[in-house]
Design goal:
alpha+beta; 29% helix; 24% strand; globular
């Protein structure tokens, strides 16, 4: 087996592996540890721009998205260094300055994080430039929610061929904002902008994911005044200055759920160190209904099958619903369940494209591009939703497949490990966006694979 690629946490991940040869049919067994959540760490890093003194973030995962944000911070004059323990980074924002458009564009990569720099940079510098945004092609992720909110704070938005330029000639002031959808990104944008805006901001229909609550905790440590009310309402009282923070990131529940689904699909047993019950309640309920067994322990959760897998009906939704990031790895396991499962995807309109590869490998999956009209529903129908009907169990066989996006790519790797025979999986470098030391973890679990290139 080829040696897995390694990188030093916080030093800028550079994963060159793009294709794996995977021989499946072997249960994954062993322990993997998850660190801080990508969806918190990258946003908490942006928040360091707001502080007048240095910040320390702990349990920072070694991911390419983290490397992108680090590069963008450094381009703007933030000094980033290793902290006092593995996985810790310190951020000194005392030298923040404007960056050239070309530098920002060169460091932005395929990440959508740069849009969250707007509020903090407008406070610090009075202007901001955001390049064309990338990210996984899983559906329309319009930035209109972000721009509309920034305009309400008093920002002037100028759209250019190369990106978006923003300015705040009269500073930023508190606003009343009602999001048309509880978007995580737009909620983060409002929080990062409102904490230093003059006056009070009222945000309605806000996202309330655990990572959002952890970001609020970070901002409160910095001196922000934020209160959460029932029915997705958040109030932020602007303050003149904020200080640095010292914070340990919440664990990555997306990665934890991914490994749990891998145990289910391969009929293995995986202990996920660092996973916690409370943030995964919804996932654990579905996992159990599908025939999974888990044991909550002090330092993590043990996952395995509990006999024959069973069909389930799943509707993705914003927290506290079943996360859209959880459904793709779970679908692989559901191909091995006896009966018909249905997964309603209500968050992104293009997230079912990954099933094409599973069908190529022998799965019986029918995607309904406009969703299913019949049957009882807990989540209100959305125009963009899709539905996948998975009938099983179907034996999977090896195939040559191409990774489409982060969670779909992980699902393809797990499908290859579930299948009989050898698969060639290309485009796996995208997994470095959300899975730290992915190949090392596969090796620890007994996966049989070779790095091709």
């Amino acid at each position: 087996m080829s040696t897995p690629v390694r990188a030093v946490a916080g030093e800028g991940t550079s994963v060159t592996v793009s294709e794996l040869a995977i021989r499946g049919g072997r249960p994954l067994r062993g322990r993997v540890d998850v660190k801080g959540a990508k969806n918190l760490a990258t946003k908490a890093m942006v928040a360091t721009l707001l502080g007048e003194t240095p910040s320390t973030l702990r349990d920072v995962p070694d991911l390419s998205d983290v490397a992108v944000v680090r590069s963008l911070l450094e381009v703007h004059g933030v000094r980033v260094e290793a902290g006092d323990e593995p996985g810790a980074l310190t951020f000194d924002p005392s030298g923040v300055e404007s960056a050239h458009m070309e530098e920002i564009d060169a460091h932005a990569g395929a990440s959508r994080i740069p849009i969250l720099f707007c509020g903090p940079l407008l406070h610090r510098l009075g202007q901001a430039f955001i390049p064309d945004l990338g990210g996984c092609r899983i559906g329309d992720r319009p930035i209109d929610f972000h721009l509309d909110a920034l305009r309400k704070f008093g920002a002037v938005v100028e759209k250019l061929p190369s990106g978006i330029r923003l300015s705040a000639p009269e500073g930023l002031r508190g606003a009343s904002i009602h999001l048309p959808y509880p978007s995580v990104g737009a909620t983060e944008q409002v929080l990062l902008t409102a904490v230093r805006a003059k006056g009070t901001t009222e945000l309605r229909n806000a996202a309330i994911e655990p990572e959002i609550m952890d970001l609020i905790a970070v901002l409160q440590k910095m001196g922000a005044i934020i209160s959460y009310e029932p029915n997705r309402v958040i109030f932020i009282e602007g303050v003149d200055t904020l200080r640095g923070y010292d914070h340990r990131s919440i664990f990555d529940r997306n990665e934890a759920a991914s490994w749990a689904s891998a145990a289910l699909a391969t009929d293995g047993e995986i202990f996920v160190g660092g996973a916690r019950q409370q943030e995964m309640l919804t996932f654990l309920n579905v996992f159990r209904k599908a025939g999974g067994w888990f044991d909550i322990q002090e330092d993590g959760i043990l996952f395995r099958r509990d006999g024959e897998l069973k069909p389930v009906v799943v509707e993705t939704d914003v927290h506290p619903g079943f996360m859209t990031d959880w459904q793709q790895p779970l679908v692989v396991a559901l191909t091995q369940a006896k009966g018909r499962s249905i997964v309603h995807e209500t968050v992104y309109e293009n997230r079912m494209g990954f099933t094409d590869a599973l069908v190529k490998m022998g799965a019986d999956i029918v995607v309904h591009p406009h969703g299913l009209q019949d049957g009882p529903r807990r989540v209100a129908r959305r125009e963009l939703e899709q539905a996948a009907v998975i009938t099983g169990p179907t034996p999977l066989h090896g195939a040559d497949i191409v990774v489409p996006d982060l969670r779909g790519g992980y699902s393809h790797v797990i499908a290859a490990l579930t299948a009989q025979g050898e698969s060639r999986v290309s485009g796996v470098d995208i997994l470095s966006r959300g899975y730290e030391k992915f190949l090392d973890k596969l090796t620890a679990l007994g996966a049989d694979f070779d790095v091709i290139r």
